[in-house]
Amino acid sequence: MTSAVTLYGSIAAAVLATLAIASWLVKADRRLHRMTDVIERVARLLDPEDNSPGLAERLRSIENRTARIEAEHHTNGGSTTRDAINRLEVGLRHLNDRFPGSGTP
Known about the structure:
The protein is mainly α.
């Protein structure tokens, strides 16, 4: 009887270990599939199959637009937004000097 209990206990332990390993393999397989999906999405972003721009080209475009917008915040002698704001401020100061008490301090 003792040997039968030991035998069944060994079989039960082996079955439980096999189920645990199978469960781990299923979870690992799901993770691998998710990682594969992410890698495929990144690959499509880097090198799209259609004629749309890739990620690097999109980033360059954003950097170029940002540089153009940033350049508008610096003076260049007349044509930037900063130059226009400076001219407006000078004009308002001039008007305030001509008509004291009618504008902002």
